[in-house]
Amino acid sequence: MKGEKMMANKSEWKNQQSKHQRRNHHLREIILAILVVLSVAVTVCPYTAQAATPKVLVSGYKVSAATIYSGDNFNLILEILNTSKNKVKNMKVTVASEGGEIIPVSGTGSVYVAEIAGNETSEQTFSMQAAAGLEEKTYKLSVKMEYENTSGEAFEMEDTLYLPVYLKQRVSVTDVMTDDAKVGDEVEITAQVNNLGEGMLYNVNARVEGKHVEKQETYIGNIDTGKSGNVDLLVKAIAVTDFDEMAKAEDWIIVTYEDRNGNKHEEKVDVSFYIETVDYEDLEVLKEAPEKTGPATWQILLICACVLAVGVFVGVTINKKRSR
Fold it and tell me: Quick one: which H or E segment has residue 76?
């Protein structure tokens, strides 16, 4: 009786242990399933988010003109990058400035792009103009991109470009005058530097150089729009003018100046000099000519006048005595 009871207890203990093992196994399966789901979610979610919100941006741009001047046209080439792995489609790209400083040459300033593949770049060209009468500074240009993902959901992105605009500078050199001289003499050169452009001329210098005179330079300063600066130089003549080569430029007035950003510019004009050789024979004749002695001409004339006056006085006196 006692043995049967022990066998029954042992069987019950085995049944409980088996249930406990099955419960643990089932729990492990549940935990493993949860881990698998979490792993898949972590892996898939970034791509799902990326596919849902594709990001497009302006990765770069180029301008056809080396310098954008107020009033001039230029081409703006945009590089539009699709950063997502999935393509975007039905894109509208619009460029505009807040105050209308930079405007499209024609149309609305928008282009249509059918699609851009994932991680690919599309180049789009816009014909633009910097409006006339602008100040010399940098202007903001906004780039607005409207597009759809593969599911047809609409998105919008905007970037900003910064374009420097300059004013045209134009210089003329007029009223050039020089003196005739002989070799070794000093020659005066005068001229006017005229600012015919739209912007200020900074740090204006003028120099004379060439074959017939020594190099000389003068500082003029800043010249405002529509104003002039004076050139007045005194230079030494060093070579005789060869009249057979007068048609060939051999001497120049060179004007240098800077724009607002410190970029240097130069204006060069021809100048002619009439330089003669020194006549050494005339110098020798003057040097060797004997000095004149005796009274000067004015002294002789004075003596003659006195003698004549005395003669007249004496004659008048004698005539008076005779008449008495």
Answer: strand 73-82
Burial group, residue 50, by CB count within 10 angstroms (0-12, 13-18, 19+): middle
pLDDT single digits (tens) 280-289: 655 554 455 5
Tokens coding 234:
């005194």
pTM for this entry: 0.58
3-state helix, strand, coil in the chain (%, to 5): 30, 45, 30
Measuring CA to CA, how many Å separate 303 from each of 292, 299, 310? 19, 6, 11
Range list of H helices, the chain: 2-52, 280-288, 297-323
Shortest CA distance to 173 belongs to which of 111, 87, 67, 256? 256
- Beta-carbon contacts of 143 under 8 Å, excluding residues fewer than 6 positions away, are 58, 78, 93, 94, 95, 158, 159, 160, 161
Residue found by looking up tokens 């997502």 in the block: 84
Instruction: Take residue 264 and report the two structure tokens written for it.
Output: 């240097």
Q: Which of 120, 116, 57, 51 is nearest to 87 (CA)?
A: 116
Strand, coil or helix: 141: strand
Q: For residue range 41-89, what is the model confidence (pLDDT) as tens digits?
A: 545 444 444 445 789 999 999 999 989 999 999 999 999 999 999 999 9
What totals of helices (H) and strands (E) does the chain contain, helices first? 3, 17
